[in-house]
Amino acid sequence: MNLLLEKSSKNKLPLWLNCVCNELRVFGEFTTINKQIQDFSSELSELIRNIIYRINSDFSNDIIKEILCLIHLTRNGIPENEIPLLLKSCGFDTNRLECAHIIRNLKFYLKFSYYQNIQLITLNTNYIGQVIDAEFLPNNQIYYSYHKKLINFYLNISKYRLLSCLELCYHYKIISDKKQLAEYLKTNEANMYLNFSYKSFLYKDLRCRFLANKKTSTNLKICLYCANKIGFLSQNSPNKNSCYVCGSFFTVSSKLVYTCIKHSENGTKTTFK
pLDDT for 164-202, tens place per residue? Predict the structure, then answer.
């Protein structure tokens, strides 16, 4: 115990002591406990790295690496009961029993929470996320590939549509896929689950920044919401009595709208001037 406390005093982080004690509990071999304590790195990041590789070596095909990267990059967390489906969509043929064994081995390093009666799994500390970034996500290509795996999962597989809606918008924004984000924001699902303020936030990066072409005559109209830049893109084809941007029927407060100098020829819905 004195050796453990002496080594922990060099780090001065309670998380280091927690991780070491958990590792000693896992090994359960107390005849060589002094040697085991001496072998632990005094640096927290190096200790976490060694623990992750130790757990990863207990399973095949780097499945621990895969699930930690996916959990780390999710916005709100991954539904625990859908982890087998997520891993299967990433090419890992695992059943629920095997997934339960994986989660049991990682449990000390995970946080469990509830959202809309869904049990979600996230990492319990940013220190683990920093190690994952350094070891498993060294460049943007790999980083974006995991976001695309999560996009595929939440778009086509997950049954929790409110959670999926929030996750999809987040991941589209992270990988800067503005086209797919704009298309998704037109869907009935996005209109159902996203509130005005969040959609307005998402539209900031989607709006065209070209100057308006006010020399071109137009009969297009824009509603009050879209004039204040909080309108929604619509799948409906606008007619002479509807807003050019969102498709809603305009009121007496509607305004004339101009297309920009870039999009005036093809009539693409763009920013509001």
Answer: 999 999 999 999 998 899 889 888 898 889 887 788 788
**Whole-prediction pTM value?**
0.79
Tokens 């709208």, residue located: 257
Amino acid in position 250: F
As a whole number of angstroms, the distance between CA 231 and CA 224 comes to 8
Which stretch of DSSP H or E encloses residue 78?
A: strand 78-79
Radius of gyration from C-alpha coordinates of the chain:
25
CB-based contact 191:231 (threshold 8 Å): no
For 75, the token pair is 């916005």
Tokens for 86? 């997520």
Q: What is the largest CA-CA distance in the chain?
A: 87
Contact indicator for 124, 132 with CB cutoff of 8 Å: no
Q: Where are the alpha helices (DSSP H) in 14-92?
A: 14-27, 33-39, 44-57, 63-73, 83-89
Residues of the chain with pLDDT under 70: 1-12, 28-29, 209, 211-222, 224-259, 261-273
